[in-house]
Design brief:
Elements: E1 3-8, H1 11-24, E2 31-36, E3 52-56, H2 65-75, E4 79-84, H3 91-94, E5 100-102, H4 118-128, H5 135-146, H6 151-165
Parallel strand pairs: 1-2, 1-3, 3-4, 4-5
Helix pairs in contact: 1-4, 1-6, 5-6
The chain binds manganese (II) ion.
Residues 12, 57, 85, 108-109, 128 line the site of manganese (II) ion.
């Protein structure tokens, strides 16, 4: 598929993936979504056919900085944007706002992405802080708890989120 979203595995990552698809107007039928974590970036297989790549809610790996740097290198010119709110990003990367939107003060990544959907932003903020999630987000969170390693469930959740907004 032509478009690729790489997202963190948590609920904020799931909401962020949906928000990025809305923000960049990626056609869902041509968009692949991979879920990962900062310490697993070396195991992410980037499909060759991916032409535009967006990364959301994946923090900088401070224990192994080379892992994040090597991953960014692998993405190369296909990287369209990287949104994150975790702290610890080195200035030489975070200081490139054309590609990296890093806001450590933000409550969540989904809350940072201008999806035009206040409910997505609010629920992402609640997911990463506290408060009561909307019923649809509660259901997704429960699904993720039951099957923490099930990326199909995450993918289905992103599609579900997009259906309720489109
Ligand atoms: Mn987050």
């Amino acid at each position: 598929m032509k478009y690729l979203i790489i997202a963190d595995q948590g609920l904020d990552g799931v909401i962020s993936a949906a928000s990025a698809i809305i923000y960049y107007d990626f056609p869902l039928g041509e968009t692949e979504i991979l879920f990962t974590q900062p310490f697993a970036l070396d195991r992410v297989e980037i499909p060759e056919e991916a032409e535009r790549i967006v990364v959301v809610d994946v923090g900088f790996n401070n224990e192994n900085p080379e892992m994040t740097r090597a991953f960014i290198k692998r993405l190369g010119s296909k990287l369209l944007g990287w949104f994150d709110h975790h702290s610890g990003w080195p200035e030489d990367i975070a200081g490139n706002p054309a590609l990296f939107v890093i806001i450590p003060q933000a409550k969540s990544c989904g809350g940072m992405i201008p999806s035009g959907d206040p409910e997505l932003r609010a629920n992402a903020n609640i997911a990463d802080t506290h408060g009561e999630l909307s019923p649809w987000a509660q259901i997704i969170e429960e699904d993720l708890k039951v099957n923490p390693l099930d990326n199909e469930a995450r993918l289905a959740a992103v599609h579900k989120i997009l259906k309720r907004t489109k």
